Amino acid sequence: MKRAHREKLQLCDALEKIADALPRVDRLKCLGTANAIVPLLRDIHQYEETIIFPAYEAAISRGEASLASTRRLRAEHVEDECFAAEVTEILLAIGHGKTIDNAEAVGFMLRGFFESLRRHIAFEREHVLPKIGIVDLG
Question: What is the pTM of this model?
């Protein structure tokens, strides 16, 4: 899990650097980042949904919490993967030389995506992982 969070945070950092550099971005960085997003998220989400979430659900007591948290996290995974496809598409276009017509809109899109990923990680670190005995991933 530590590796998964580290890789997602590295992706967030790369996206933030691209957003900060708009409209003058490194096209190769855009291509490399675009090609990493979907496979990375798909693999991490599968791991979380098959290993981490079932362990969390088994660890919480009935009176303590419902399964609403894992249902929400699973829904976020679907949203993240849809958003990742859109981000990938724009980064590939930029990487292949497409002119950025509205750098502010692209930056807003990238920031929305990576901030969502960071919030998801923060929630897992604060609420899910301690329940299954994983602590101090920072």
Answer: 0.90
CA–CA gap between residue 118 and residue 62 (Å, rounded) = 28
- 4-15: per-residue pLDDT in tens? 999 999 999 999
Contact between 41 and 81 under an 8 Å Cβ cutoff? The reply is yes
Residue 42 pLDDT > 70, yes or no? Answer: yes
137: exposed, middle or buried (C-beta count within 10 Å: 0-12, 13-18, 19+)? middle
Residue 125 DSSP symbol: I
If DSSP codes are grouped into helix, strand and coil, which group holds residue 90? helix
Structure tokens at 65: 């919490």
Q: From 57, 35, 54, 36, select the one nearest 46 (Cα to Cα).
A: 54
Cβ atoms 109, 48 nearer than 8 A: no
